[in-house]
Amino acid sequence: MPDAAERLELQLDIPWSAVFLPDGTAIISERNTALLKTVPAGGRDVTLGEVPGVAAAGEGGLLGLALSPAFAADRYLYMYFTAREDNRIARVRVQESGGALSLDEPEPIFTGIPKANTHNGGRIRFGPDGFLYVGTGDSQRRDQPQDPQALGGKILRLTPDGGPAPGNPFGNAVYSLGHRNVQGLAWDSAGRLWASEFGPDVNDELNLVVPAGNYGWPAVTGAPGRPEFQDAKVVWPSTAESSPSGLEIVGSTAYLGALRGQRLWTVPLEGAEAGTPVAHFTRQFGRIRDVVRTPEGGFWLLTNNENPDFVLVLPPSP
Ligand SMILES: [Ca+2]
Q: Which end of the chain is more exposed for a tag (fewer CB within 10 A), N or C?
Protein backbone atom coordinates (compact mmCIF):
# COMPACT_ATOMS: atom_id res chain seq x y z
CA MET A 1 0.00 0.00 0.00
CA PRO A 2 1.59 3.31 -1.04
CA ASP A 3 1.85 5.83 1.79
CA ALA A 4 1.81 8.77 -0.62
CA ALA A 5 -1.24 9.50 -2.71
CA GLU A 6 -2.23 12.21 -5.14
CA ARG A 7 -5.36 14.27 -4.52
CA LEU A 8 -7.55 15.04 -7.52
CA GLU A 9 -9.05 18.33 -6.38
CA LEU A 10 -12.41 17.92 -8.06
CA GLN A 11 -15.23 20.03 -6.64
CA LEU A 12 -17.48 17.11 -5.74
CA ASP A 13 -20.53 17.01 -3.47
CA ILE A 14 -20.86 13.60 -1.74
CA PRO A 15 -19.60 11.40 -4.59
CA TRP A 16 -20.99 7.91 -4.08
CA SER A 17 -19.77 5.69 -6.89
CA ALA A 18 -17.46 5.82 -9.91
CA VAL A 19 -17.01 3.70 -13.03
CA PHE A 20 -14.48 3.94 -15.84
CA LEU A 21 -15.45 3.87 -19.51
CA PRO A 22 -13.25 1.90 -21.91
CA ASP A 23 -11.39 5.10 -22.93
CA GLY A 24 -10.44 5.82 -19.29
CA THR A 25 -13.06 8.52 -18.69
CA ALA A 26 -14.60 8.22 -15.22
CA ILE A 27 -18.29 8.76 -14.46
CA ILE A 28 -19.07 9.75 -10.86
CA SER A 29 -22.46 9.89 -9.14
CA GLU A 30 -23.23 12.62 -6.60
CA ARG A 31 -25.76 11.56 -3.98
CA ASN A 32 -27.57 14.82 -3.18
CA THR A 33 -27.27 16.76 -6.44
CA ALA A 34 -28.33 13.70 -8.55
CA LEU A 35 -25.62 14.74 -11.00
CA LEU A 36 -23.48 12.42 -13.07
CA LYS A 37 -20.07 13.95 -13.66
CA THR A 38 -17.36 12.86 -16.05
CA VAL A 39 -13.64 13.13 -15.49
CA PRO A 40 -11.56 12.52 -18.61
CA ALA A 41 -8.17 10.91 -17.91
CA GLY A 42 -6.02 13.67 -16.43
CA GLY A 43 -8.83 16.23 -16.73
CA ARG A 44 -11.35 18.16 -14.65
CA ASP A 45 -14.87 17.16 -13.73
CA VAL A 46 -17.65 18.11 -16.12
CA THR A 47 -21.38 17.67 -15.51
CA LEU A 48 -22.80 15.02 -17.81
CA GLY A 49 -26.39 15.40 -16.66
CA GLU A 50 -28.89 15.23 -13.83
CA VAL A 51 -30.70 11.97 -13.26
CA PRO A 52 -34.44 12.73 -13.29
CA GLY A 53 -36.66 11.47 -10.48
CA VAL A 54 -34.05 11.33 -7.72
CA ALA A 55 -35.48 12.29 -4.31
CA ALA A 56 -32.39 12.80 -2.16
CA ALA A 57 -32.93 12.80 1.62
CA GLY A 58 -30.87 11.45 4.49
CA GLU A 59 -28.69 8.64 3.18
CA GLY A 60 -30.80 8.33 0.01
CA GLY A 61 -30.16 9.90 -3.38
CA LEU A 62 -28.17 9.00 -6.47
CA LEU A 63 -26.08 6.06 -5.24
CA GLY A 64 -24.40 3.15 -7.04
CA LEU A 65 -23.27 2.97 -10.64
CA ALA A 66 -22.37 -0.04 -12.80
CA LEU A 67 -21.30 -0.27 -16.40
CA SER A 68 -22.89 -2.90 -18.62
CA PRO A 69 -20.48 -5.78 -19.30
CA ALA A 70 -21.47 -5.25 -22.95
CA PHE A 71 -20.98 -1.47 -22.76
CA ALA A 72 -19.00 -1.27 -26.01
CA ALA A 73 -22.10 -2.57 -27.81
CA ASP A 74 -25.06 -1.36 -25.71
CA ARG A 75 -23.65 1.83 -24.03
CA TYR A 76 -25.68 1.16 -20.84
CA LEU A 77 -24.85 2.77 -17.50
CA TYR A 78 -26.86 1.31 -14.57
CA MET A 79 -27.82 3.53 -11.61
CA TYR A 80 -29.36 2.79 -8.19
CA PHE A 81 -31.22 5.76 -6.73
CA THR A 82 -33.80 6.84 -4.21
CA ALA A 83 -36.97 8.05 -5.91
CA ARG A 84 -40.14 9.52 -4.43
CA GLU A 85 -41.71 6.17 -3.51
CA ASP A 86 -38.88 3.66 -3.53
CA ASN A 87 -35.29 2.80 -4.28
CA ARG A 88 -34.91 1.71 -7.87
CA ILE A 89 -32.50 0.80 -10.63
CA ALA A 90 -32.50 2.47 -14.02
CA ARG A 91 -30.21 2.25 -16.98
CA VAL A 92 -29.32 4.98 -19.42
CA ARG A 93 -27.42 4.98 -22.68
CA VAL A 94 -24.29 7.13 -22.64
CA GLN A 95 -24.01 8.44 -26.19
CA GLU A 96 -20.77 9.68 -27.67
CA SER A 97 -20.60 12.05 -30.60
CA GLY A 98 -17.47 13.82 -31.73
CA GLY A 99 -15.83 13.10 -28.39
CA ALA A 100 -18.71 14.61 -26.37
CA LEU A 101 -20.81 12.40 -24.08
CA SER A 102 -24.55 12.80 -23.53
CA LEU A 103 -27.33 10.84 -21.83
CA ASP A 104 -30.47 9.35 -23.34
CA GLU A 105 -33.67 9.10 -21.30
CA PRO A 106 -33.19 6.68 -18.36
CA GLU A 107 -35.26 3.50 -18.30
CA PRO A 108 -36.28 2.03 -14.92
CA ILE A 109 -35.56 -1.71 -14.91
CA PHE A 110 -36.25 -2.63 -11.26
CA THR A 111 -38.44 -0.74 -8.79
CA GLY A 112 -40.04 -1.21 -5.37
CA ILE A 113 -36.98 -1.56 -3.15
CA PRO A 114 -38.10 0.02 0.16
CA LYS A 115 -36.64 3.41 1.04
CA ALA A 116 -36.10 5.28 4.28
CA ASN A 117 -34.06 8.16 5.66
CA THR A 118 -31.24 5.70 6.36
CA HIS A 119 -30.33 2.10 5.41
CA ASN A 120 -30.97 2.40 1.67
CA GLY A 121 -28.14 0.11 0.53
CA GLY A 122 -27.28 1.22 -2.98
CA ARG A 123 -24.30 -0.69 -4.35
CA ILE A 124 -24.76 -2.41 -7.73
CA ARG A 125 -22.20 -4.47 -9.59
CA PHE A 126 -22.14 -6.99 -12.41
CA GLY A 127 -20.74 -10.34 -11.34
CA PRO A 128 -18.48 -12.65 -13.30
CA ASP A 129 -21.66 -14.51 -14.31
CA GLY A 130 -22.94 -11.42 -16.15
CA PHE A 131 -25.81 -10.77 -13.70
CA LEU A 132 -26.37 -7.57 -11.75
CA TYR A 133 -25.94 -7.86 -7.97
CA VAL A 134 -27.61 -5.28 -5.75
CA GLY A 135 -27.02 -4.46 -2.08
CA THR A 136 -30.17 -3.19 -0.35
CA GLY A 137 -30.80 -1.91 3.18
CA ASP A 138 -33.41 -2.89 5.73
CA SER A 139 -34.99 0.57 5.21
CA GLN A 140 -35.49 0.73 8.99
CA ARG A 141 -38.06 -2.07 8.74
CA ARG A 142 -37.02 -4.98 10.89
CA ASP A 143 -39.48 -7.38 9.24
CA GLN A 144 -37.80 -7.06 5.83
CA PRO A 145 -34.42 -8.83 6.05
CA GLN A 146 -35.69 -12.26 7.16
CA ASP A 147 -38.56 -12.35 4.64
CA PRO A 148 -37.35 -13.96 1.39
CA GLN A 149 -40.24 -12.29 -0.46
CA ALA A 150 -39.27 -8.76 0.67
CA LEU A 151 -36.62 -6.69 -1.07
CA GLY A 152 -35.17 -4.87 1.96
CA GLY A 153 -32.08 -6.23 3.69
CA LYS A 154 -30.98 -8.37 0.76
CA ILE A 155 -28.47 -8.97 -1.92
CA LEU A 156 -30.44 -9.25 -5.16
CA ARG A 157 -29.33 -10.88 -8.41
CA LEU A 158 -30.89 -9.60 -11.63
CA THR A 159 -30.66 -10.07 -15.36
CA PRO A 160 -29.45 -7.00 -17.27
CA ASP A 161 -33.12 -6.30 -18.11
CA GLY A 162 -34.12 -6.32 -14.42
CA GLY A 163 -35.73 -9.76 -14.15
CA PRO A 164 -34.87 -12.32 -11.46
CA ALA A 165 -31.67 -14.04 -12.56
CA PRO A 166 -32.04 -17.74 -13.44
CA GLY A 167 -31.02 -20.05 -10.60
CA ASN A 168 -31.85 -17.63 -7.79
CA PRO A 169 -32.59 -19.66 -4.64
CA PHE A 170 -36.13 -18.41 -3.93
CA GLY A 171 -37.35 -18.05 -7.53
CA ASN A 172 -37.39 -14.27 -7.23
CA ALA A 173 -34.77 -11.52 -7.24
CA VAL A 174 -33.37 -12.43 -3.81
CA TYR A 175 -29.91 -14.01 -3.64
CA SER A 176 -29.09 -13.74 0.09
CA LEU A 177 -30.96 -12.42 3.12
CA GLY A 178 -30.63 -11.18 6.69
CA HIS A 179 -28.63 -8.09 5.75
CA ARG A 180 -28.82 -4.72 7.47
CA ASN A 181 -27.28 -2.32 4.95
CA VAL A 182 -24.98 -3.54 2.16
CA GLN A 183 -22.90 -0.92 0.32
CA GLY A 184 -19.95 -2.97 -0.93
CA LEU A 185 -19.82 -5.92 -3.37
CA ALA A 186 -16.76 -7.56 -4.94
CA TRP A 187 -15.60 -10.93 -6.21
CA ASP A 188 -12.31 -12.66 -5.51
CA SER A 189 -10.22 -14.42 -8.16
CA ALA A 190 -12.04 -17.70 -7.48
CA GLY A 191 -15.41 -16.05 -8.15
CA ARG A 192 -16.56 -15.85 -4.51
CA LEU A 193 -18.77 -12.88 -3.66
CA TRP A 194 -17.82 -10.75 -0.65
CA ALA A 195 -19.94 -7.94 0.78
CA SER A 196 -19.42 -5.20 3.33
CA GLU A 197 -22.20 -4.33 5.74
CA PHE A 198 -22.85 -1.68 8.38
CA GLY A 199 -23.53 -2.91 11.91
CA PRO A 200 -25.89 -1.04 14.28
CA ASP A 201 -23.41 0.46 16.79
CA VAL A 202 -21.25 -2.64 16.95
CA ASN A 203 -20.17 -5.35 14.55
CA ASP A 204 -19.52 -3.98 11.09
CA GLU A 205 -19.04 -6.95 8.81
CA LEU A 206 -17.22 -8.37 5.83
CA ASN A 207 -19.22 -11.38 4.64
CA LEU A 208 -18.61 -14.20 2.20
CA VAL A 209 -21.93 -14.38 0.38
CA VAL A 210 -23.51 -17.68 -0.67
CA PRO A 211 -26.89 -18.15 -2.37
CA ALA A 212 -29.73 -18.39 0.18
CA GLY A 213 -27.27 -17.52 2.94
CA ASN A 214 -28.90 -15.84 5.95
CA TYR A 215 -26.63 -13.19 7.45
CA GLY A 216 -28.57 -12.82 10.67
CA TRP A 217 -30.06 -9.32 10.85
CA PRO A 218 -31.94 -8.32 12.90
CA ALA A 219 -31.65 -11.44 15.09
CA VAL A 220 -27.84 -11.42 15.36
CA THR A 221 -24.79 -9.49 14.14
CA GLY A 222 -21.14 -10.43 13.74
CA ALA A 223 -20.06 -14.02 14.18
CA PRO A 224 -22.07 -15.61 17.02
CA GLY A 225 -21.70 -19.16 15.67
CA ARG A 226 -25.41 -19.85 15.30
CA PRO A 227 -25.95 -22.69 12.79
CA GLU A 228 -28.93 -21.03 11.08
CA PHE A 229 -26.93 -17.90 10.24
CA GLN A 230 -23.75 -17.15 8.30
CA ASP A 231 -21.02 -15.75 10.53
CA ALA A 232 -19.21 -12.67 9.24
CA LYS A 233 -15.62 -13.39 8.15
CA VAL A 234 -14.41 -10.09 9.61
CA VAL A 235 -16.13 -8.27 12.47
CA TRP A 236 -15.22 -4.72 13.48
CA PRO A 237 -16.50 -4.45 17.06
CA SER A 238 -16.72 -0.64 16.92
CA THR A 239 -18.50 1.06 14.03
CA ALA A 240 -16.54 4.22 14.97
CA GLU A 241 -13.47 2.52 13.54
CA SER A 242 -15.08 1.24 10.36
CA SER A 243 -18.59 1.68 8.89
CA PRO A 244 -17.48 0.15 5.59
CA SER A 245 -19.04 1.16 2.27
CA GLY A 246 -17.22 0.53 -1.05
CA LEU A 247 -15.35 -2.75 -1.49
CA GLU A 248 -12.77 -3.84 -4.03
CA ILE A 249 -10.74 -7.06 -4.25
CA VAL A 250 -7.44 -7.31 -6.07
CA GLY A 251 -5.36 -10.45 -5.87
CA SER A 252 -5.89 -11.85 -2.38
CA THR A 253 -6.56 -8.49 -0.72
CA ALA A 254 -9.90 -6.83 0.02
CA TYR A 255 -9.98 -3.02 0.20
CA LEU A 256 -12.81 -1.31 2.12
CA GLY A 257 -13.54 2.39 2.35
CA ALA A 258 -14.63 3.39 5.86
CA LEU A 259 -16.97 6.31 6.57
CA ARG A 260 -17.03 6.86 10.35
CA GLY A 261 -13.68 5.11 10.61
CA GLN A 262 -12.14 7.61 8.13
CA ARG A 263 -9.63 5.15 6.74
CA LEU A 264 -8.98 2.48 4.16
CA TRP A 265 -9.04 -1.06 5.49
CA THR A 266 -7.23 -3.90 3.78
CA VAL A 267 -8.06 -7.50 4.62
CA PRO A 268 -5.95 -10.47 3.49
CA LEU A 269 -8.19 -13.17 2.01
CA GLU A 270 -7.17 -16.80 2.36
CA GLY A 271 -9.55 -18.79 0.21
CA ALA A 272 -12.93 -18.62 1.91
CA GLU A 273 -11.45 -17.16 5.09
CA ALA A 274 -10.26 -13.66 5.96
CA GLY A 275 -7.29 -12.54 8.03
CA THR A 276 -6.73 -9.55 10.29
CA PRO A 277 -7.68 -6.10 8.90
CA VAL A 278 -4.99 -3.44 8.53
CA ALA A 279 -5.81 0.31 8.64
CA HIS A 280 -4.34 2.88 6.24
CA PHE A 281 -4.64 6.71 6.05
CA THR A 282 -6.48 6.82 9.39
CA ARG A 283 -8.20 10.24 9.73
CA GLN A 284 -5.87 11.72 7.08
CA PHE A 285 -8.51 12.31 4.45
CA GLY A 286 -11.79 11.95 6.31
CA ARG A 287 -14.70 9.70 5.35
CA ILE A 288 -14.19 7.32 2.42
CA ARG A 289 -17.30 6.19 0.50
CA ASP A 290 -15.94 4.12 -2.34
CA VAL A 291 -12.84 2.29 -3.50
CA VAL A 292 -12.58 1.85 -7.26
CA ARG A 293 -9.93 0.07 -9.30
CA THR A 294 -8.53 2.35 -11.99
CA PRO A 295 -7.69 1.25 -15.54
CA GLU A 296 -4.01 1.75 -14.62
CA GLY A 297 -4.33 -0.81 -11.80
CA GLY A 298 -4.31 1.65 -8.90
CA PHE A 299 -7.29 2.90 -6.91
CA TRP A 300 -9.57 5.89 -6.60
CA LEU A 301 -10.89 6.62 -3.14
CA LEU A 302 -13.97 8.88 -3.04
CA THR A 303 -14.13 11.07 0.07
CA ASN A 304 -17.43 12.11 1.70
CA ASN A 305 -16.69 15.20 3.79
CA GLU A 306 -18.64 17.91 1.91
CA ASN A 307 -15.82 20.45 2.08
CA PRO A 308 -15.86 19.86 -1.03
CA ASP A 309 -15.02 16.26 -1.75
CA PHE A 310 -12.10 15.01 -3.77
CA VAL A 311 -10.62 11.83 -5.18
CA LEU A 312 -7.56 10.28 -3.66
CA VAL A 313 -5.53 8.46 -6.33
CA LEU A 314 -3.38 5.53 -5.25
CA PRO A 315 -0.87 4.48 -7.89
CA PRO A 316 -0.52 0.84 -8.89
CA SER A 317 1.57 -1.21 -6.49
CA PRO A 318 5.10 -1.72 -7.83
CA1 LIG B 1 -24.59 -10.35 9.84
A: C
